[in-house]
Each structure stands twice: as structure tokens, then as C-alpha cells.
Amino acid sequence: MAAGKVVYLNHRRGLRYLASNSTPGSFFTSRYVRRSMAECVRKHTSHRRVAQWFMTMSESQARVTNGTHQIMLCVLGICLTGGIICAAQSVDHGRRETPRLPTVAFDYSNDLPAYFTASDAPDNIVGTDNTPVDNPVTDDGATLGRVLFYDTRLSENGTVSCGSCHQQRSGFSDPRRLSIGVHGQPTRRHSMALANARYYARGKFFWDERAETLEQQVLIPIQDPVEMGMTLSRLETRLASIPYYPPLFTAAFGNPVVTRDRIAHALAQFVRALVSYRSRYDTARNAGLPGSPAFLAQFTEPERRGHQLFVTVPGPGVRGAGCARCHVTDVQIVRGPRNIGLETAGDDGAGDARFKAPSLRNVAIRPPYMHDGRFTTLREVIEHYDHGIVAHPFLDMTLLDRRLAVTGGPVRPTQLNLLEYEKDALLAFLNTLTDDSFITDRRFADPFAPRPPSF
Predict the structure, then answer these.
(1) Which residues pair with 328 in a beta bridge?
(2) What is the DSSP letter of 433?
């Protein structure tokens, strides 16, 4: 259905239309929804309430096909004659006008496991924390940051928020290859996942590290003409005029004054609060050190094999993938941007075709992958490292054939030549990094999302 085109249908035809035009198992083919729609018609429920609910639920059915984000947003309402209005809608998302927040602010301190805070290990996590001394995470600051993060009023025409491109259910990345900006244009790169963003000692952000700090980074998409299209001076004026912001700024900073620095500090606090530490990997890590019997007992046999491949450096007679040479610590972060042998088509990243990478937490639920979203599955990523690395003068040393590198031979990427069952095992282990609690945590959820109406 073309965007904005409204078709008037009686309720039976409307139900049949949605059922026949939905994919098997999708939201609109569920028995519950068909029953609810019929009940809406019977009771003449307010078309606005129904429209708001179905808009939100239809958004959750977003799918990615061949790198294109194909969404059909269906709004259902009851017209005066008792029919159903079915519209493809792209602007009114049925969102709440004001954020729904708890009476007492959520606790954003995170009850982190000991291995997150211990400083005595060589590859400790706490030593990579980029939180500045003048902007620690506070409950009120992160609450304000959460509202700002999801508020579409931060964009020029009120259609895009930070959360539009960093979606909680996708590990705060975007299921689309490229995000869609304020005027419907695609962004330059894929949306980087935000989980554990605070753990990066270099403190720089974006794939090309062009932002020196997180506080600087959060303001750049707001001003980008493709992404959100706002000026900071206009944003300050707009937020100051919205009734729910003065109390939030007062709670976070002591008075209601809205400034760009305060906006940046609050957004940065919320992003640094996005710590993932409740995956199955963490359950194993809480049981013992990596590789210990207690640690390995928490995994299945394929997962144990995958972990062994992840941490083992390949060599003559040694089966391994060597992932842990770059993805270090228990949050699987990189220490800096690297050239991993991608054909970059003119995108030089941080220089020499090097790109920063996010933490591997929740990697299995946030396709597509790489700075340009070129790989649609995690299996394709493994295939790249197995035999698809492209030679480059600045290829990372961990990906070079060491025998040639030592002798001064030509640049030749290493090939892992993993067997199919080894690739399956590596996938199984990477799935243990999924943190279901993180992607459903109310503290990080959209406060403007409407509740389903009670029919």
C-alpha cells in the first residue's frame, strides 16, 4: 500500500486484507490480533487509540531484506460508518506526547560483576572505562539522557530520534543496512551498536573515530543535515519550551537551564549506562575464569568448542580463529581501529581503511555487520575472516600470513580454513554473548512508546 493512501474497508474485508498481506507468523496473522481487531469494530473503540497501538506493534515487525528496510505501518481506526481505515503511515508513530517515567528515577549504577570492576587483571575491563571525571553517570542525568535519546523533537521535523537508529531490540544498532534520516535519505554508514560503549580507553567515537569524546559525539548526529537536521541553538530554544524538560534538567543539573553542554552530558550518561553484563557468557564467567572447568561447564559442547576457537591463535597444526587477539577483555572490545581487509570503495575510515569496532555483546541479534552493513549474517562475517580477507598495505598484522610477514614477502592475508562444524561452533559461542535482559531492560526502553489499549 502506498504511503498515505487510505482504503476504506468494512471490518471483515479489512481483516482478510491484513491476514492475506502479512508474512506467515507475523504480528497481523496472529489469532489474538484478528480477534482484537474484530472486538475494536464491535465496541467502536476510538480510532486514535487503535491507530496508536497498531502503529507501534507494526513497527516491531520491521524486517530487513537484501539490505533494504521494508516496513508496512498499518493504522487501523473506526470511521463513522463502522468501517476500518487502513493506512500506510510514515510520520505519526502514535507515540506519547510526554514521556512515561517512574516516580523515583531508575537506578543506573548497574550492579556489575566483580570481573567488571577488578583492576588487577592484565586485560581488565575497568581500565578501559572512558567516563570523564566531570560527567559520571547519575540516575537523574541518565533519566534525562534517556528522554532525550528517544525524543523525536531533537530532529528538525520531529520524526527521528537517536533511538530510531539505535534500537534496543537490536542491541542499540539498526536492523537496516543504512539508517534513514530526517528527510528520508540514507545515512553514510551503518549504525554502530552502543552496548558497552563506555569501555573503550581511547575514548573516541564513530567508525572513523572523528569524535574525540562521547560528549562530542552525541551532538554530531543532531546537527547532521541527513540524520536529524537541527541546529544546537534552535534545539536549546525548543527543549526549553517543552513543559516536561525543565523539571528533568533541574533534577539532573540543579536548575532548568537548557544548554547544549547539558544535553551532551545527559545523552552521554545514558549511553554509558548501556552496560551489557547478563549474557550466558557472564553466567559462565561468574562461575570461573575463562577456560576453567567451572566456566566451561556452563556451555554446551559446540559452545565450548567455539570458545576454544575464539581464544586460540591459529598456526601450523593448531586449529583456531584467533578472535580474542583483537576482541579483548570479558566485554570483547577492540583497543583501536583496524584494517580487517575489506574492500572499502573509497571510505578510508580512521585512515588507511581502518575502522573502530563495537563490543561483540549481542552481536548475534544485530545484523547487518561492518561499517557499511555489507554482511547480512554472522556466518558471512566468519566466512570473511576464514577466506575472504583482501590484501591491503595496511592490513592488520594479526590477519597477515606470518611466514611471509617475517621474511618480508608480499602482503598475503591468512586463511583459517575452518571446517563447517567449526564455523557452527564459533556461531554457537557468539550466541552466548546475547544479553536478553539488556535488550528488554525497562531502564533503557523508549519512554514515549504507547501502551496497548484495553479493549
Answers:
(1) 333
(2) T
Q: 3-class DSSP state for residue 260?
A: helix
Report, as ranges of residue numbers, the positions in the chain whose pLDDT lies below 50: 1-93, 453-455
- Name the residue ranges covered by the structural domains of the chain: 6-88, 114-275+438-444, 280-431
Domain 114-275+438-444 has CATH 1.10.760.10: yes
Instruction: Report which residue type is found at 405.
Output: A
CB 417 within 8 Å of CB 386 = yes
Residue 311's nearest CA partner among 350, 281, 341 is 281
Q: How far apart are CA 395 and CA 10, in angstroms?
A: 62
Judge whether 114-275+438-444 and 280-431 match in fold.
yes
> What pLDDT is recorded for position 399?
93
pLDDT of residue 14: 41
DSSP helix/strand/coil, 167 = strand
pLDDT at position 120 is 87
Alpha-carbon gap, residue 426 to 307, rounded angstroms: 7
pLDDT for 110 equals 87
Which CA distances in Å does 23 have to 34, 75, 138, 371? 14, 17, 44, 30
Q: Which of 149, 135, 136, 153 is nearest to 261 (CA)?
A: 135
Task: Please give the Cα distance from 310 to 266 (Å, whole number).
Answer: 36
**Cβ partners under 8 Å of residue 140, min gap 6:** 105, 248, 251, 252
**pLDDT attached to residue 404:** 58
183: amino acid identity, one letter? H
Domain 280-431 has what CATH class? mainly alpha
As a residue count, the chain comes to 455
